[in-house]
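S.,

Sequence below, as promised.
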Amino acid sequence: MKKKKVLKQLWIFAVIVILVVSATGCENKKKTIDPNSMMVYFINVGKGDCALLQFQNKNYLIDTGYEETADDVEKFLRDHNVVTIDGIILSHYDKDHVGGAADIIHNFTVKNIYMPEYVDSGNKYAEFMEKVELYGLQDKINYVKEDQTITEGKVTIDLFACKETYYEQENDYSLVAKVNYDKDTYLFAGDAEKARLKELLTYDEATFKADVLKIPHHGGYNKKVDDFVELVAPKYAVSTSETEDTTEQELKDIMTENNITCYYTCNGTIVCESNGKGEYKWKTLK
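The prediction came back faster than expected:
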């Protein structure tokens, strides 16, 4: 009798545990999935770029950080329910942008890869292309030779291609991406420097105007940055610099003069949530 009573108590306890875990799982699922929100995570990978966009059950990754930060990025993606990546946008092939790409395409299902068409001599680019061939992903690559638009329901991602086939500075090969969700607008400027910024300044004001700007080249300053910030006219900016001090003072002065609120990934991953109405909520994950 005592044995039956103990077994019954264990069974009841097990049922309670299952119910609690299930309820918690449902609660977490409700918290993480909101069809009316766009979540943008500017992931802290040091002086490097990696941003996750989540919207309407879609996942897009803009750059992938370093090879050394790939494990951290992968954990972040899994913690945010990423199994399939609908698109990876590689702005260019510096190690702090493409370094984690080889591991990511190995560990996640990737539907599309968008990248500029040029050949880089760096090891990380070579490793990535080797893995693309090894995993049979050649047909997933979309070389952005001309400006194009990706459409995902209410969201569009405009990709702006390089105008030249050769630049002295590799950073000037950077693809630029503008993300639009109704009234929400985000602009990712890669590592664009003088030559590339000069090209971007030939577009009209409406093309690049955005509420949120991922500052080009980790907060570096050059004479074209003033005009570019004026063209974009952001309310918020994100600098992927190693420390706040490595965002150059001239750029900080521009943001102060234009009442632009700046966030720094060196302080932790930056989270921006918006609802399509031009309203943004910000927080930093330590």
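Residues 14-31 have pLDDT under 50 and may be disordered.

Coffee later?
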